[in-house]
Structures are given as C-alpha cells and as structure tokens.
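lol ok so funny story. i was supposed to be doing the assay writeup but got distracted and ended up predicting the structure for this chain instead. priorities right. anyway since i did it might as well share w the group, maybe its usefull for someone
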Amino acid sequence: MLKEWELINSEVDRDYRVFRIKTEKSLSPRTNKEGRFYVIDTNDWVNVIPITEKGEIVMIRQFRHGSKEITLEIPGGLVDESDPEEAAVRELLEETGYRGAKVTLLGATNPNPAIFNNLCHTYLIEGAKKVSEVDLDPDEDIEVELLSPSEIPALIEKGVISHALVIVAFHYYFSRNHTKSITPQQSCEVSAE
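and the output, tada:
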C-alpha cells in the first residue's frame, strides 16, 4: 500500500513576493532514503466565470509574460487575507468593473501537485452588471470582452483559450450546466453563421 512521505525539513530558499521556493527533505516510506524536493509555496488562487443578466460571459484579454502572448481568460487572482469567495468578488470588480448577484463555488483544483501547494477555486458569479470602471494594478493591462457560452468550446478547441486553469473552470461550468452545454461541433456551427 502506498504511503505518504515523512517531511524531515522545509526551508524557504527564495521569496519572490507572490510565491516562495521551498527546499524540502522527505523520507521515502519504501526505500527509507531521504529525497530533496522543491515546492512552490503560494496563496490559493481564484478564477471567476461571470455571467451577465443577458447570459454573456465576462472575459478578459491580457498579456502574459510567461507565454509572451495576449490571452483570452476569465477574471482571477490571488487570495490574500480574505477567503476565496471574497477574493473572487474583488478580482471580478477590479479587473472588469462588474459585480454579480449570486456567487457559487464550482470547484477547486491543484494547479500542479508535483510542485505547487495551493488550490485554484472556481466561482460562478451570476447576474453580473457593470457597476464601476476597472481598478487595475500598475502591472496589469486588461480588456473586457463579452462572449456567449456557446462560443467557449470552439475557442478551447482552436487554442484561443489555452490557459489550463481557465479550461478547468469551464469544465466545472459545463459539467454543472450539462443540459445547457453545447458540443464543440455545435459551437462551430453557431460561430459559422
């Protein structure tokens, strides 16, 4: 039977403001030998699927420094001192100027359990309305775009939406709303009109 490894030591190697690199030593239950591992220690994250009163999804476009591309995503960010639901509401308002009437947790996933120790919580915010201008951080440039849910599967299939955590968020959304979901082929037919 597989057993958990025993943590012997954990130290912060580097601190980069939004995450820390930890060096950890753990004992293998199978070999009884020590292994050395690196863990990215960071706060939890949130992703938000905001649905307007007209049924449109509030999406954002922004430049990502890792991929060096402008990506199509949903609002999201770090969970700071607040709980994930409060962070979801805050990030939606800051990045888009929208606020919603109903907030529902759709699910949470670990971005990569091999190296990350956090979760990304996905929230559905319904009844979203534009209530203010955006309030972006100095390092953010964001454009807001409204899309029909029926467009999403084809955008994922074509690689226009390529952010893994955004794709997971839409998996939660379409799984929850499976009777309303649409196949990628149906979506292509809708887009071609």
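The mean pLDDT is 92. Residues 110 and 185 are 30 Å apart (CA to CA).
back to the writeup now i swear
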